[in-house]
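Design request, tokens follow.
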């Protein structure tokens, strides 16, 4: 007599199982000395872009461990690793914010990077600063660039790709001029994709 087969558990794709629920917050993590008032200005635009609660966590220490004396810059991957270690399962995304110059080995510098598999990212304010103009308008420019960069990185975590449309926030910025031109809004394609990804 054949024994009834044990029912198999329903198959769940791993990313589906790890996907945080609709109430999961986006967590902003200041690292080292960062202007927290400036970080605070990204909260509302991020909430509006992703329909998630955005929370600023307590800060992590200055990332001395990531400093490369030859380059005079900080290794992005080493700092991103700390952000990944901190990310709690119930967070939608963990975004580390630093005010040091970041690099990855192949390129002179990066504004930031994201790792979709760990739902973590890192952003540097350093290269987003404007060199000219009165301090009030410089701060305004920096805020706009930071908002665009933060939405771009969370967009990558949420499954969007780099977008060929240079007016879309998901366009890859090689320079701050690219960032100023694209702004913080999604193109119709990316918006549609974001809504279908949930
Ligand atoms: Zn787009």
């Amino acid at each position: 007599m054949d024994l009834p087969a044990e029912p198999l558990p329903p198959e769940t794709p791993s990313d589906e199982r790890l996907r945080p629920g609709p109430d999961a917050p986006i967590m902003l993590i200041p690292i080292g000395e960062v202007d927290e008032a400036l970080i605070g200005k990204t909260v509302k635009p991020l909430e509006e872009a992703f329909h998630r609660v955005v929370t600023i966590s307590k800060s992590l220490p200055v990332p001395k461990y990531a400093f490369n004396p030859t380059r005079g810059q900080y290794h992005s991957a080493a700092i991103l690793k700390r952000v990944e270690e901190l990310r709690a399962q119930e967070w939608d995304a963990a975004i580390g914010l630093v005010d040091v110059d970041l690099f990855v080995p192949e390129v002179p510098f990066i504004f930031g990077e994201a790792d979709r598999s760990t739902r973590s990212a890192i952003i540097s304010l350093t290269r987003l600063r404007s060199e000219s103009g009165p301090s009030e308008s410089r701060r305004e420019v920096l805020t706009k660039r930071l908002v665009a960069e933060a939405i771009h990185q969370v967009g990558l975590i949420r499954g969007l790709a780099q977008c060929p449309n240079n007016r879309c926030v998901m366009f890859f910025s090689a320079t701050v001029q690219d960032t100023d031109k694209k702004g913080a809004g999604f193109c119709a394609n990316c918006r549609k994709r974001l809504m279908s990804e949930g």
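Comment from the thread starter after seeing the answer: thanks! Strands lie at 26-30, 54-56, 67-68, 73-75, 93-98, 102-103, 112-115, 120-124.
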